[in-house]
Each structure stands twice: as structure tokens, then as C-alpha cells.
Amino acid sequence: MASGTKHLLRDTITIGGDLTVRRIGFGAMRITGPGVWGPPADRPAAVALVRHAVDAGVNFIDTADSYGPYVSEEIIAEALAPYADNVVIATKAGFVRPGPDEWVIDARPKRLRECAEGSLRRLKRDCIDLFQLHRIDPRVPMEESLGALTDLQREGKIRHIGISQTSVDAYEQAKKTATIVSVQNRYNVEDRGSEDVLKACERDGVVFLPWFPLGGTGSLKHAALQRMAAALRATPTQVALAWLLARSQYILPIPGTSSITHFDENLKAVELSLTTAQFEELSST
Q1: Are 28 and 255 in contact (CB under 8 A)?
Q2: I need a labelling partner for 171 at 20 to 30 A (CA). Which of 58, 140, 142, 234 fits?
Q3: Burial class of residue 265 in the structure, from the number of CB atoms within 10 Å of its CB (0-12 exposed, 13-18 middle, 19+ buried)
Q4: pLDDT digit string (tens) for 198-215?
Q5: 8-214+250-256 in CATH: which number?
Q6: Which of these is catalytic: 67, 83, 171, 187?
Q7: Annotation says 67 is catalytic
Q8: Could you tell me how many helices (H) and strands (E) the chain has, helices first?
Q9: Where residue 9 falls among pLDDT bands split at 50, 70, 90?
């Protein structure tokens, strides 16, 4: 790894006041089979990728019990357990997986407890650093779902609580039941639908985890990414990640991949510096 990358990976962000991690994490959804279902085609390669990510300086890993299901968590444990003291593992619960590319929300309190207990076993952890409600269940009062997580928190089974794919109103409601330290929403150069949620996180000092960092293709924004990438001798994904890092000090990108080569390529985003004009062009609506 280039020395510049090592230096820039010293930049950190703190989650919940006590979990300090590097400014770019690793999303572990893609270390599963097609449709986020079943095992990957090459499990040893997936294990090697997770180890490589941590060896490269990344110490925030984001996963979910629904990735596989269970496969991603099992691979992370195989790769990293026993864990280094500075490695932070975040997982999520709130989906049932009937099959490939199928996602059914289920955030009943009893099931969330079962999911958390299962994640602890699979991840080989005594306590989950960050446990996120993957989706708010419209059939279950939010305070009941989050109440199950606060019970687990009091029992010492999870340290911090986050929520995923939420609105500002739901975020404000969630704060009445639990101390929310992170929000994970879809957000990228092209899809700025969660801009108001990001601003609420900035106001409260809450970490914002954007997923799907590149966005779609064929748009004017994507054409701008391609043009800037050519000028910077980078890739569009690197530019998109650099924009996220510059957009807010509370953003913690978690790009995912199944390839060490692609991971290394993504990580080089920390070396990019966008000009003011480039940043403003990508930030414009």
C-alpha cells in the first residue's frame, strides 16, 4: 500500500463516543452468493478478503444476519476471530430471507432478540459493537422493536444501537426509545434523497453510513464522475467515495466487494482530493 494511503487512514471517526474507526469501512454483503444468498463461489477467497481489509487498515466491518443469510457473519468470524482490539463489527437484523434477492421485513421484538443471539454466536463475540435495526417494521410499533434492542444493550449483549433506511421523522421518534449512534441510508452523488437525514445526523453528531455509494449509470451525474475520474486518473467509484468523504465529517462510507483487487482500488479513494469546482458540481442537485 502506498505511504499516502497509510497516512490518510489515520483519519478517524468516532461512533457512540467510544468506538473510533478509520474514515472508510468495509461492507460485507458481497462475500455471499448470487442474490446475497448462500455461500460465495470461493469461500477461502472471501475469508482472505476480510483479513486483507483489516491488514490494509480498515477496522469497521458492516454486515447483517440476512446476508446469506448468516454466511457473511460466519466468514467474518472465520477471518478475524479472535478479533484485534481496534476492530469494530456492526451487524443488522430485521429481515427474513425466503430466497435469493427476496427480503421480507420482520422486526418483532422476540425475533430481534433471536437474531442478536444468533449473531453473537456466528460472529464469536461476547458483545456486538453496533447492532442496527435493518428496517422499521410497519406492523410493529417502533418503540417495541427498539425496546428489544435497549434490553439487549442493558444486558451487555450489544454496545450501541443504530437504524437503517429511515426518515427524519422516524429517526426523531427512534431517539425517544434508544440512544441512536448511527444511521445507514442509501445515499450517493446521484441519490440525495436522504440529505435531510444526513443533516439531522450532523446536527446530533451521529455517524451516517451511506450504502450504494456509486449510484446508477447513464445519468448526467455519472457522466460527471467518469469525466472527473479520467482527469484524476482514478475510477468513477473512487471519485464517488472521495466526494462522500468530503461531503461531511460524519459520513463513514462502507463500500463492498468480493475482490481484493477491487477493495484496494476502492481504498485509494482516500488519496483523492477533489477541487472545489468538482465537489460543487457533484453536490449540485
Answers
A1: no
A2: 58
A3: middle
A4: 999 999 999 999 998 777
A5: 3.20.20.100
A6: 67
A7: yes
A8: 11, 11
A9: low
